[in-house]
Fold these 2 entries.
Entry 1:
Amino acid sequence: MNLEQARFNMIEQQIRPWDVLDAHVLHLLSVVRREDFVPPAYQALAFVDMEIPLPAGQCMLAPRVEARMLQDLGVQKHETVLEIGAGSGHMAALLAHRAHSVLTLEIDAGLAAMARTNLQRAGVHNAEVRHMDGSKGCIADAPFDVIVLSGSVAEVPTALLAQLRTGGRLGAIVGEAPVMRATIVTRAAEARFSSTQPWDTMAQRLLHFPEPSHFNF
């Protein structure tokens, strides 16, 4: 397998056509080695337009979803980022190249260890992995400039919005199958938020976030 050709094809055939046109993001995808964050059994699928299975029943988001979220959040070099759902550490690595620092929370101990190892091996030193339930965020380290949910939720979590700095952005995939939408929420002022839903996608659920009731009366 020609890894560099596969990487080029991923960027040109999957990511750029999905309106990811930020030159810095595209360059980042060419230098952060996605294959180093994929379990060995799935190496051949590292650049395929799909979610990659991870241990504990979790998965890596599809490449175009990670890339579009990274672009739309507009992470800057001075900003602090909170990620919910470290997975294999790939999104944290991308974020770390754009941000001042990244704190990524992972509920599964094995995945937290995997992400930590992958980030260290990739030479990423400004991303910290913590083994903890991220559904309530991390109040002790708040506020954050950017919060990223690397998975889907039924609704935007208010507990996490409260941990945004004024001017900060939260990115999440919100809704229920078969319709989920990327949602970018900006904290315009202490008690004022604005949101956009620029694209549709599907993603695996993050654990321990509230689900709506489906009882019929």
Entry 2:
Amino acid sequence: MSLFSNENLQAADKKAKKVKKHKILIVDDELANIKVMSSILSISYEVLTAENGVDALSIIDKMNDPHELSMIISDQRMPKMTGVELFERTIEKLPDVIRIIVSGYSDMSAVISAINKAHIFHFISKPFERAEFLMTVKQSLKTYDFKKQTEKEKADLKEQLTLCKEARQFKEQQLAQATKLLEDLNLSI
């Protein structure tokens, strides 16, 4: 006798497929780093990888909808393009994406500059602890989800406000017509 019914397993599988996984792009020139970060994240998220900033931009450009990308995690020091340069180039196209820099170099002035120039959400020092890395990603994505939900609710409220204004205008027109009709009836009596 099995512990779980096939129906319940199929229902759970369908529910899991309906839940949209966050898409995360990992950019690092060291394949070992890509493997480590991918292994940590691929269980819960859809992971894309690139070995440098130029390849990362190419991946983003080839995506059907780049706004499906929730997060970019990039090494800072890479050939062809630094992580900050990559992020600066993505700001206009992907203003809401979470940007995380991972670096073995922790010059505070460089970190502050990166945060200001490239809209870095978080800085992670190498080597990092697996649990801390995963928690940083999860918390960052919670912030991303909260922002997206807030934007959706704001748009819904704007739409409701527009509908209320239109309804008010319609009622004012009806009132004006009724008032005119009463005035016309009064004059004819």
